[in-house]
Amino acid sequence: MSAREPERSTRHLARGASFGLLAQAADKLLPVALTLYLARALEPAQFGVFSFILAYLALFQTLTEYSLDTVLVRTMAQSDVPRERIFQAGLALKLLLAVASAAAATLLAPMVSDGQVPMSLMLPAALMLPTAMGAAYRALFRARLDIRSVFVLAGARSLLVAVAVVAAVVMGAGLPALFAAMAAANLAAFLGVAFVVRSSVSPRPSFDLEIWRSLSRGLGPLLANALAMTISLRVGQLLLMSMRGPVEVGLLGAASRVVEAFTLLPEALMITVYPFMAGLHNSNPRRLMATAEKSTRYLVVATGLPVLICAVAGASTMHLLFGAEFAEAGDVLSLLALTALLSATGTVMLNLLVAVHRETMLLANTVVFSAASVVLSIIWIRAHGYAGAAAAMVVTSFASQVSLALLPSTREYARPCLLAGLRTFVAVFVAAAVANSLHASAAVEILAAVVVYAVTLVILGVVNREEVRFVRTVLTAALASGERGQV
């Protein structure tokens, strides 16, 4: 390795991460904007049903998108088989699984929703699964480290969905037409990218049993793990529908959507870093761990800022974003914001464990705490409503990561990630405690929290000259990529 190779790799990752950030901004921020729009445009019960359906569909997306796409990226990054062949086989497998998932989602919806979501409404909503084939192209672009194309695809799809949603609401067509419009936007995005890149990769699905067997070997553990994680994150909204009704589903769904926007940075970085870490697994394990630790530290520091705002001004934030009727969910937003910090460590931890093929123990751990989340949610929803659902999510998320840091087969990888964010966790709690003790206006408390947070990071040694120098290098590379307009 030449002396300048690490620097070149850092700059390449920075350029990719800058486009990854833009891609996640399109994926995360525009849905938040649409949620804000729909919270005001729909009746509270309608908005609750809309939030329930999105949470319900997330269970099926773990199969058709999250799990299979992760396996596709890893297979294309590590296999000697031509990427086009893997892509075409993955496309066919995604289509089959998506159609089956859409059928299952439609048939089970009335039972899961306690009769509040009929099949006539669920069918157009479930069409969003088989029309989301554009995700296969995202996996291909990520494997190539062509993150600029990931951003272009994400931006185009988000724009199409936004136009479709606004058009459906303006026409007053109702929830079935709203979901049908979103499915049509998904399909248009897929057809558009397939046409644009048709000369380099054919969109022809391939029923390649050999590739399917290879993908399935990694798919099983990842699918079960992703499903268990999704249950942990969404079970509150699903249980609230039958236990408390759609209005509380809407309150929890609105607060959750705000917090989900904070996962923008972790997921954006992993768009680029995950395939890079997968490639380092066999070639340079030491550099693999250094990459994971540094990624975790910076992500937790950056995520701490929006978490602080929610921690000290939750009610004001909900009022500003969604209107007066959502202000009561401010305490829940403050509580759920803690999951954003856990997401910063957990996202790196998850991708690292997948890259080093620790899916089996990851699955076992996630299943245990997913089951614990269901039990806690049932108990605490009965006692505290949607606030109890939020508390169950925070407790089980934290306990799950601590468990991975202690288990013999995963602690070598999980513990460094958790420890890399520990001092920043302390800084966040100290800053929030100081600000809340002032009993001043929201603006004063936020300002105090940010100042205390910055000072505490310096005192604890999280921010130092070496880190500032590295960040300056990354930002310079990111700005250069923007000026050149290429990865």
What does this structure look like?
This protein is mostly helical. The protein has helices spanning 5-41, 44-78, 83-112, 119-126, 134-143, 147-170, 175-196, 209-243, 246-261, 264-283, 285-312, 314-322, 330-355, 359-384, 386-406, 411-436, 442-459, 465-484. Helix 3 runs antiparallel to helix 4, helix 8 packs parallel to helix 14 (359-384) and helix 11 packs antiparallel against helix 17.
Give a quick rundown of the structure.
The protein is mostly helical and about 475 residues long. The protein is built from 18 helices and no strands. It is globular.
Which helices and strands occur, and which strands form pairs?
Layout lengths: L4 H37 L2 H35 L4 H30 L6 H8 L7 H10 L3 H24 L4 H22 L12 H35 L2 H16 L2 H20 L1 H28 L1 H9 L7 H26 L3 H26 L1 H21 L4 H26 L5 H18 L5 H20 L3
Helix pairs in contact: 1-6, 1-9, 1-10, 1-18, 2-3, 2-5, 2-8, 2-9, 2-10, 3-4, 3-5, 3-8, 4-7, 5-6, 6-7, 8-9, 8-14, 8-15, 9-13, 9-15, 10-11, 10-13, 11-13, 11-16, 11-17, 12-13, 13-15, 13-16, 14-15, 15-16, 16-17
SSE string, helices as H and strands as E: HHHHHHHHHHHHHHHHHH
Averaged pLDDT: 81
Q: Rg to the nearest angstrom?
A: 22 Å
Distance between the termini: 22 Å
Low-confidence stretches: 1-8, 477-487
- Count the helices. How many? 18
Helix percent band:
over 70%
Q: Find the count of extended strands (DSSP E, 2+ residues).
A: 0
Strand content: under 5%
**Per the principal axes of the C-alpha atoms, what is the gross shape?**
globular
Structural class: mainly alpha
Query: How is the biggest beta sheet arranged?
Result: none
